[in-house]
Write a structure and sequence with these properties.
This protein is an alpha+beta fold. The protein has a domain at 79-153. It is 19% helix and 29% strand. Strand 4 and strand 5 form a beta hairpin. The longest helix is centred in the N-terminal third of the chain and has 25 residues, at 2-26. The radius of gyration is 38 Å and the shape is rod-shaped.
Length: 157
């Protein structure tokens, strides 16, 4: 009896496999996916970008890394102190850090974060001078007051 059941099972499995093979030969493979083992007939087209992402910051724009609503404070001195006094020495400035990356230049001068072109007040004794950060270069900054330019090196510890 066991032999009969085994032989009938074998015949049924073989008949089901033959039926599936004839059905797959009659119906073509779907067009969206190729049949197993078949090679695709068409090459896929390369992806073309319509618009590329770009970030360009204007020179007078707000730095996106500053907190919302925060603006750099610049001390404005009165004109009586601006025109008085003698020359300023480079030792009046402490440049502790310089960052130059993709056109954005920042320096920490006397403990404040500054950009090129930014003006700030420097108090020496009882006098306050209006100073402009003219250029930020690798390892030094150039500050200006009227016709006087000073090169202030980065202080490394």
């Amino acid at each position: 009896m066991k032999r009969l059941i085994l032989s009938l099972t074998f015949v049924l499995v073989a008949a089901a496999g033959a039926f599936a093979a004839t059905e797959s030969a009659k119906s073509p493979a779907p067009t969206g996916s190729p049949a197993i083992g078949a090679t695709p007939k068409e090459e896929t087209a390369p992806i073309e970008l319509k618009t590329k992402s770009l970030f360009a910051m204007e020179t007078n724009a707000r730095n996106p890394f500053w907190p919302i609503g925060w603006k750099p404070a610049a001390k404005i001195s009165d004109s009586a102190n601006e025109h008085g006094g003698g020359d300023i020495s480079a030792t009046a400035f402490v440049v502790s850090s310089i960052t130059i990356e993709h056109g954005a230049k920042f320096a920490i001068v006397n403990g404040k974060i500054m950009q090129e072109g930014q003006q700030f007040g420097l108090q020496v004794g009882s006098q306050t001078y209006q100073i402009t950060l003219k250029r930020i270069e690798d390892g030094r900054v150039i500050v200006a007051r009227h016709d006087q330019e000073l090169v202030v090196p980065l202080r490394r510890k």
